[in-house]
Amino acid sequence: MPMTLKVYEVNRTGTVRVLREETEVTPFEKPEASHDFPACECPTCTEATS
Q1: End-to-end CA separation in angstroms for the chain
Q2: Are the C-beta atoms of residues 7 and 17 closer than 8 Å to each other?
Q3: 3-state class of 41 per DSSP?
Q4: Contacts of 41 (CB under 8 A, 6+ apart)
Q5: Residues 47/35/33/22 CA torsion (nearest 10 deg)
C-alpha cells in the first residue's frame, strides 16, 4: 500500500518552507526493529561522507 510523503520545515515564527514536494513512497514490508535512526541517504549527506 503506497503512502505519500512531503518534507518541510517550520521556523520558530511559523513560516513553512517545503523541502521536498509530496511524492508517493512504498513502505517497507517489515521495518527493522531498532531505536536508532538509519543513516540519511539524501544527496547532501551522501556527498558529505564521500
Answers
A1: 34
A2: no
A3: coil
A4: none
A5: -50
User: Does the predicted TM-score (pTM) go above 0.85?
Assistant: no
Angle (CA) 45 47 50, round 5°: 115
Name the phi and psi angles at 48, rounded to 5: -70, -30
Instruction: Give the pLDDT confidence score for residue 49 in this predicted structure.
Output: 63
Q: What is the pLDDT of residues 1-50, one digit of tens each?
A: 778 999 999 999 999 999 999 999 888 888 777 778 777 888 888 776 66
DSSP single-letter state for residue 31: -
